[in-house]
Every structure is written in structure tokens, then in C-alpha cells.
Amino acid sequence: ARRLSTLLLALLWLGLVTALAGPQRLVPTRDLTASGREILLALDMSGSMLIEDFDIDGVQSTRLEAVKQVAQRFVAERTGDRIGLVLFADRAYVAAPPTFDLPAVSRAIEEATIGITGRSTAIADGLGLALKRSAASDATSRVIVLMSDGRDTAKRLDAVQVARLAAEHGVRVHTIALGPEDLETRPASRDAVDTVTLRAIAEASGGKSYRVRGMEDLTAMAEDLDRLEPNPSSRPPVIVPQPVWIWPALLALLAALGIGMNRRAEA
């Protein structure tokens, strides 16, 4: 019994001294501080997005399926950015307000459906709504990624004029012209994308324009966007100290309880 008491007393003092010393262990972690950047995706939901002219892993797929896959991958890698989603066809609406909740934005992309707001292409409306949200933001860096596979058929607004307004508010607009045909080479095609207008939108706002004819172009575009708008989470891990005094303190507590129980047993 005396040996047990001596052992428990030694453990009590060891635990107390160690806990009071404030032991720590170094843990690698990511710096998840917000980047200060806000990115709004403006995606075309017109009827032509159902055309099957993209190949995904050997399977003929629609433009919408290809766009969803790349957009979701892009969103998943934007840790530290605030991301929002605007969908447009005849009209535009906010499918996901700017948020750090990236899974929620990804779900909104997955649930995007053709026909909810018509089947035409109101590019200026989609850009205008995205700009309205961006202009009201307190983010230090604001970006709009506009993706369309058609021409502006609504013409309620001048899309290039909206892009100039975006530049005045410090908002960059990157545009993506999606589809195998364009109005420059196939002016009579109903499914041709208006590369001229999309290029002018990007140039007017200080952004970059992309021409995407297939899945390889779409993947390369996403990688280039990552370079233009670098992901803050790509920085190396940060080593932070994590206190571990609780374990020696717990040892001291158990030793104290043991001493008390041992004395009762001796009595």
C-alpha cells in the first residue's frame, strides 16, 4: 500500500509540474484566412445548352453536363474565396448568393435546370445581375466568370456597356464562348456563339476571353483561370502550436483520486 501511495504521489507531482509547464505539440494546418476575393459565376441556361457535342470520358454529353463538371471542380478548389452563382436565359436570377459555403454553391450548380427562366439567351441580363451583386460587395477583389454558348437574343441591355460599367466598379469579367460554331465563321447558324461580343465584354472590363470547342478546351480554360485568379489555399501549410496540458493534468487528477481511495482502504 505504501509503495502504491508513493507511486501515485509521484504521478500526481509529475502531472502537475508537466501541466503547469504548458506543453505544446506542433500541428501543420492550412491558412484558411479569407482571400478577400469574390467570384460570381454567370452561367447560360438557354435551350442550346442541351446540345450533345461534348465528350466526357468517352460518353457523348450535353454542353450543360460539361459546364457543370468543370464549374463544380473550379468551385471546390476556391477555398478562401467567396463564390456566388447567377443563372440566365430569358431572365437572370441568383441561384446562390456569394458565400464561403462552397458545397452549397456546388449543389446549386448541380441542380441548375434548363427552362426555369426560359430558353433564350439574355447575356446582358445575366452579366448585369452579377455586376449588381459584385458592385455591392465589400470584397477587395471582385471577379465575374461569364459562360455562354449563344448570342444575346433579348437585347434589353448592351452587354459591352455593362462590361464598361463593371470596369468602373473594379470588377473583372472573364468570358467563355462555348460550342463548336461561332458567328464569325457561321453567321447563319442558330447555335453559333457570339465570340465577338464575349471577347469585347472581357476586353472592356480588363478580363480575359476563352474559346471552348470541347472538353479539352474547357479543362485548359479552368486551369488558366486558376492561374489568373490564384487560389489562396495553395500556400504551404502553416505550423501552429496546439496545447496538450490537459493530458498531464488528467494524469494528476487520476493520481489524486487514487491516493484518496488508497487512504480510505488503509483506514
Automatic annotation (TrEMBL):
SMART domains: VWA. The chain crosses the membrane at residues 244-261. InterPro entries: UPF0353/GerABKA_families (IPR050768), VWF_A (IPR002035), vWFA_dom_sf (IPR036465). PROSITE patterns: VWFA. The keyword Ribosomal protein does not apply. Keywords: Membrane, Transmembrane, Transmembrane helix. This is VWA domain-containing protein. It comes from Cereibacter changlensis. The lineage of its organism: Bacteria, Pseudomonadati, Pseudomonadota, Alphaproteobacteria, Rhodobacterales.
